[in-house]
Amino acid sequence: MSRLMTRTAVTLGASTAAVAMGVFGSAVAHASPNVVGMTYGEASSELSTAGFTPVVSTTVGAALPWPDCVVTHQRDRTAPAPPNSQWNGGADVEQTLVTLNCNASLASPGYPGNSLASPEGRSAAASEEPATPATPEG
Fold first, then answer.
1. What does pTM read for this prediction?
2. Could you tell me if 72 and 99 are in contact, meaning their C-beta atoms sit under 8 angstroms apart?
3. Is the sign of the CA dihedral 41, 46, 50, 55 positive or negative?
4. pLDDT tens across 50-92, in order?
5. Domains (ranges, CATH) in the chain?
6. 101-130, pLDDT tens digit by residue?
């Protein structure tokens, strides 16, 4: 009797997994390249070259145009082709959802960005060229 119950449980588990895959979609066949830390312009190009469609899912800030925003998070997904269409040959589309930080690298009066007290702000301030000291007039 326990052998029959084991077979039934295995069959039920496999059926449930198959239904879940059909309802929720399948996993991405392979992972996209890591683009966190790149600008969206660079990341978009790299993802497209690897066969992924970049999709902006979230943005923070609005000080920079999208190509200059920094990718702070990414997640892959497979999107089904629209029903009753021949879009992309009816095949599923591998997408990479990205989150963009569009604030300036360093905050200034009236413009959001990283605080000079944060590690990111200190790094941004250190990478800026030092100002030329003023020479006294004589």
1. 0.63
2. yes
3. negative
4. 999 999 999 999 889 999 999 999 999 998 877 766 655 667 8
5. 27-82+90-104 (3.30.10)
6. 999 888 888 888 888 999 888 988 898 765
